[in-house]
Every structure is written in structure tokens, then in C-alpha cells.
Prior knowledge:
mainly alpha
Amino acid sequence: MTTNKRLSSSPAGRIPGNVTPGGALDVSGLPSYAFGPRSLMWWGTLGVIAIEATVFAMMVATYFYLRSQAPGWPLGVQPPLLVWGTVNTLILLASVVPNHFTKHAAESHDLAGVRLGMCLCILFALAFLVVRIFEFRSLNVAWDANAYGSAVWTLLGLHTVHLVTDFADSLVLAVLMFTGPLEGRRFVDVAENAMYWDFVVFAWLPIYAVIYWAPRF
């Protein structure tokens, strides 16, 4: 009797999550998206992070190889000024707070929180990119001056590319969260974007040490 009631109340006489009379598994009642490791987007983001982390590691290894072959380091110039790199490090570390707020809001389907968090994250990213201009100007070496200059500019340039792409991605997501169409998977996009920003932040810390402190020791 109970089964008959469930069949009659389900679309086309199917019971979500059960086998239909024809022998097929009915999955119509399952969610179309998920957060974390249950999401393909999460695994895709993790794969991108693994690839990009490898690129950063290879560039850092190249930096220290060039240093081991040079008679002095840096080559004929003063180390980069500390002020702008340190300011940007503080900005990035501070951005972790609104970033995690946004991620939590997305996982809670809190649209107002996501909108607020995305706007804050975009402001932090914009501030970082503005200060990054001053970083390039304070490296004290041209990109084509010597091996040291090429290594430093490449490291800083690679990280800047990641910042610019994530900034653009955040802008697109923010527009979608304000204008729609709003779907559940958009909250997943926001959560995975926050995960990637964490990578951008913490990947910067060893790069900052290499660019600004390694030439001083």
C-alpha cells in the first residue's frame, strides 16, 4: 500500500533513487551539483592548481640554479625594494578573510553573502594589482638585462598572470550573481573560485621570499 502511494506521487510512477518497473535506476531525485570532492569542478580546479604549482616550483628551481652558476647575486644590481612586495603580501593575506567568508556563503547558498563577499574580494584583488605595478618598477633590473633580471621578471610575471585571470573570473562570477541566471552550480563556481584564490595567495609566499629576500643572503 505504501509503495503504491509512492509510485503514484512520483513522476511517471518512478521512485527517486529506486529501480523503475522497467529495470532502470531512477536518479531524478538526486542533486545536479555538489561541493568539495563530490564536484567535478573541484577536481578540475585541483588539477589546475597542481599543474601551476609545478610551474612555479620549476621556475624557483631555475632561479637557484642560475644563482649557483653566477659569480655574484644579484648580477650587478641592488636587490628589489622591500616596501611594495611587503605591502602586497599583507594585502593578499588580508584577502583570505573575505575569500573564506565568500566560500562559506556559497556553500550555504547565501546569495546576499556571496554578493557582498565577491565585491570585497574584487576590491582586494584590484588593490593588489595596482600595487603590483609599483613592484615591477622597483625590481631595480630590466627583464632583459641578465639572467637574474629574466628570472625575477618571469617569477613575478607568472604570478601576475594568475592574479589577472582570477580577477577576471571573479568579475564574471560577480556579474552572474547579481544579474543571473542564478543556478545552484553558480554557488559551486564561487566556492571553487575561492579555493583557487587561496592557492594564489599561498603560492605568493615562497615567491615573495625568493624575489625579495633570497638576493639579500
